[in-house]
Amino acid sequence: MYNGKARAYTNIALIKYWGKKDKELILPMNNSLSLTLDAFYTETSVSFSKAYTEDTFSLDGVLQDEKATAKISHFLDLARKKAGLPYFAHVESQNFVPTAAGLASSASGLAALAGACNEALQLGLSDKELSQLARRGSGSACRSIFGGFVEWEKGYSDTTSYAQVVPSNHWEDELAMIFILINDQQKDVSSRDGMERTVATSDFYDGWLDAVARDIQTAKQAIANKDFQALGEVTEANGLKMHATTLAATPPFTYWSPDSLKAMNKVRQIRQNGLACYFTMDAGPNVKVLCQKKDVASILTALQEEFTEEQLTCAYAGQGLKSLEMEVSK
């Protein structure tokens, strides 16, 4: 039996990935830039054995259905091919992230699975190669291989599309992100389906691609200069532009809820009152607030005027993929 276990942390894109140019290889239409965080993560173990007769996948202690297992099996096939090992596998994953609620659980989940496979099969993959492998499971997973600020280079082939650290001289240690949990239920439109519909039908999509390339450069310059206002402004604007593309899709859709709008308005109000903070949203209703560590307590107090304490979670910069010791096999 070949065993491996790994932990990967979620990342939140400041400059968004939205749309694929190659669905099989998961090559994105644009570069993206994220911040890996410490509050939400996934731990995944994998066991390959000659005795297994099929792949099985358990998430949070619940055996998953055929559709969910098929996605994992497709990913396992990539690892098996690299190792030259035909054995079936059992995957156990525990999400410390609400699944499919716009909190990037697929990113941490597939990054952790990549790490667990690398450990179990002794593939000896470099971080760059792990990023390439994780990408094949979930695009944003390639960024969760690394800690801090991370840029995903869109590339043009399997070997040229991967994530890498954005030099920051540890500036991310001064920053924080507050999660406003509007809804932790399954989304009506998945990220994958939403991207596909937007790329195929949105009249705004070409404008998005033109803008996002500029936004990446603005964000990287802000990081280099440790300019929080510039980073916050481009983060907020980029997120709004991404969501605007969904409104022009056919049929149109949105990930926003009434409470999402309430949260965004509250962040604007806090900022007008003198506390620097900026919001962003991924493919889900939850709102993330980028701020500086020194302002966290004051911003949380202000947010509690509209949201319960249970809805608010604070995260700080997180680390990259970590291998874990497997528990003794039963």
TrEMBL record:
InterPro entries with a match to the protein in the record: GHMP_kinase_C_sf, Mev_decarb, Mev_diP_decarb, MVD-like_N, Mvd1_C, Ribosomal_Su5_D2-typ_SF, Ribsml_uS5_D2-typ_fold_subgr
Keywords attached to this entry: ATP-binding, Lipid biosynthesis, Lipid metabolism, Lyase, Nucleotide-binding
Entry's EC annotation: 4.1.1.33
Name the record gives this protein: diphosphomevalonate decarboxylase
Entry similarity comment: Belongs to the diphosphomevalonate decarboxylase family.
NCBIfam families referenced in this protein's UniProt entry, alphabetically: mevDPdecarb
Pfam families: MDD_C, MVD-like_N
Gene3D superfamilies, A to Z: 3.30.230.10, GHMP kinase, C-terminal domain (3.30.70.890)
Residue ranges constituting the Mvd1 C-terminal domain according to the UniProt record: 179-318
Annotated ranges, domain Diphosphomevalonate decarboxylase-like N-terminal: 8-163
